[in-house]
Design a protein that fits this description.
The complex is a heterodimer of chains A (about 140) and B (about 375). With about 140 residues, chain A is α/β, with parallel strands linked by helices. In chain A, about 50% of the residues lie in helices and about 15% in strands. A five-stranded parallel sheet of chain A has the order 2-1-3-4-5, sandwiched between helices. The model of chain A has no long low-confidence stretch (mean pLDDT about 85). The longest helix of chain B is centred in the middle third of the chain and has 71 residues. Classes of the chains: A alpha/beta (about 140), B alpha+beta (about 375). Chains A and B meet through helix 2 of A and helix 3 and helix 4 of B.
């Protein structure tokens, strides 16, 4: 399949406080051939991002203690993580959130509940775009 | 002056008495038959002098309180109700001043009462606004809370249907398809709730652009095909062959058409018909209508169909599912477009919802509203 080829060796960090969603994404993305790491809160997400330097971060917004917006800001100020592509993944579907996501430098904004095909397609095109601009490792 | 009469009547009497006295006095003095015309002239001058003196005194005593009264009335007219008018000496004027003061006191009391009830209304209004905001926030939060578990449910159902969690039997597949279909319905309801909370908060942002209606109508028909087929309802379309492009927010308009068609299907018995039509209205706009052969709406309810949570009667809520937000959302979106929405209905025969959209040509000629505004 189209995205299987591109998936090999790509590492995705999934950040969500909902364990079921975290496990589901780990399963699905893992099946697609991505290397998946997970974080259940903002602090863990920052630590993982710095340690692993993933190719893409899927970031939930509504999390206790530190929400996705704050995580995104902190990722951007740290030189090591400033250029990591981040896609917001949120049950907040309002236009203003989507606009904010793009303004804060997210590469995409995926609304929950998503159709599996849409999610995989979006991840695929993020990597394609990153490949086209030479941001691969 | 020793004598200080307290009323105009007394003063007039005193003046008259004084006048008579002066004339009598003069007459006594000049009663001798002298025949000297100078004496007569002197008498006349004396009488005139007395009259002028009396008039001057009267004028002072009458005009001063009247002027003060006029000043006081002026102050009242300008809304300065805080000071009492001075009564003065003159009885008649004092009576007027007292009435004016009573009137001012009553006005002050009425104003105080009005201010008090204004304050109360303001407090009630603030409380209602707060409650309304709370309700909108609650709806937004509830829809977020509902979407999160839906994500996991939908995700696994999709994944199982793709055979990614192992082989499934045909009946398991049918079961999962039912799950999937109902998840779609639940998602739509949640979207409706959130849209509604936006309508409530007056935050419907539209981005009008020119586009062709025919593709959109097709898209809506496709989306709702299984819903219509489930009730053996034929959804027909009748589009004018030379339909100009309309200027509207395409996504929002899709929602309008979907809600109207879902509504038409919902209230039309099995085997009925729903028609979507669009044609130029002759005034530079496009008239779009969605009609059905459904149960119709009683005349008494026609005015209320766009009210939130409204269905013609409480029992219909059990027969016809849905929270009753569809038409409210339709109205809200069309309002944001400045588009008129009308409904006609014959109970037992069917209903027809009609709205008018601006066209690209109309926008270009500058007769339409400014596109690209966030409205409502």
């Amino acid at each position: 399949m189209l995205y299987d080829g591109g998936a090999m060796g790509k590492r995705i960090l999934v950040v969500d406080d909902e364990e079921d969603i975290l496990h589901f994404l780990e399963l699905v993305l893992g099946d697609k051939g991505y290397e998946v790491t997970t974080a259940a809160n903002g602090h863990e997400a920052l630590a993982r991002a710095q340690a692993d330097g993933p190719d893409l971060i899927l970031l939930d917004i509504m999390m206790p203690h530190m929400d996705g917006w704050e995580v995104l800001k902190l990722l951007r100020v740290d030189e090591a993580t400033a250029n990591l592509p981040v896609a917001m993944l949120s049950a907040r579907t309002e236009a203003q959130d989507r606009v904010q996501g793009l303004q804060e430098g997210a590469v995409d904004y995926i609304c929950k509940p998503f159709a599996l095909r849409d999610l995989l397609g979006k991840i695929d095109s993020i990597f394609e775009a990153a490949g086209a601009t030479g941001r691969t490792d | 002056m020793i004598l200080r009469p307290r009323s105009l009547r007394a003063r007039a009497a005193l003046s008259a008495a004084l006048g008579v006295a002066v004339i009598l006095l003069a007459h006594g003095l000049y009663a001798r038959p002298s025949g000297d015309p100078r004496d007569l002239a002197l008498l006349a001058v004396l009488c005139l002098g007395v009259a002028v003196a009396l008039a001057a005194v009267h004028a002072r005593y009458v005009s001063l309180p009247l002027r003060r009264l006029a000043d006081g009335a002026q102050a009242l007219a300008e809304g300065r109700l805080d000071r009492e008018l001075e009564a003065g000496e003159l009885e008649e004027v004092r009576a007027v001043v007292e009435r004016v003061n009573q009137m001012a006191a009553r006005l002050r009391e009425n104003i105080r009462k009005l201010e008090e009830s204004n304050r109360q209304l303001g407090a009630v209004n603030r409380r209602l606004t707060e409650l309304d905001q709370t309700k909108s926030d609650l709806l937004a939060n509830v829809s977020h809370e509902l979407r999160t578990p839906l994500t996991a449910i939908k995700g696994y159902a999709d994944y199982m249907l793709e055979r990614k969690l192992g082989a499934i039997t045909p009946s398991q597949e049918r079961g999962l398809q039912v799950v999937q279909r109902n998840l779609e319905r639940l998602s739509r309801t949640i979207d409706d709730l959130l849209d509604f909370s936006h309508l409530e908060a007056n935050r419907v942002a539209i981005t009008p652009r020119p586009f062709s209606l025919d593709l959109l109508v097709d898209q809506v028909r496709q989306t709702l095909r299984s819903l219509a087929e489930g009730k053996r309802i034929e959804v027909s379309t009748e589009l004018h062959p030379e339909l100009p492009q309309v200027v509207a927010d395409r996504e929002k308009l899709a929602q309008v058409l979907e809600n109207l068609v879902v509504n038409a299907i919902k209230f039309t018995p099995d085997g009925g018909a729903v028609a979507i039509s669009a044609r130029p209205d002759g005034n530079g706009q496009v008239e779009v209508s969605v009609s059905d052969t459904g149960i119709g709406i009683p005349a008494s309810q026609l005015g209320r169909v766009f009210d939130r949570f409204h269905q013609a009667d409480a029992s219909s809520r059990r027969r016809f599912s849905g929270v009753g937000l569809g038409l409210t959302i339709v109205k809200g979106i069309l309002d944001a477009h400045g588009a008129e929405l009308r409904v006609e209905s014959v109970p037992g025969k069917g209903s027809c919802f009609r709205f008018w959209l601006k066209t690209a040509a109309q926008e270009a000629s500058g007769t339409g509203a400014d596109p690209g505004v966030d409205a409502l």
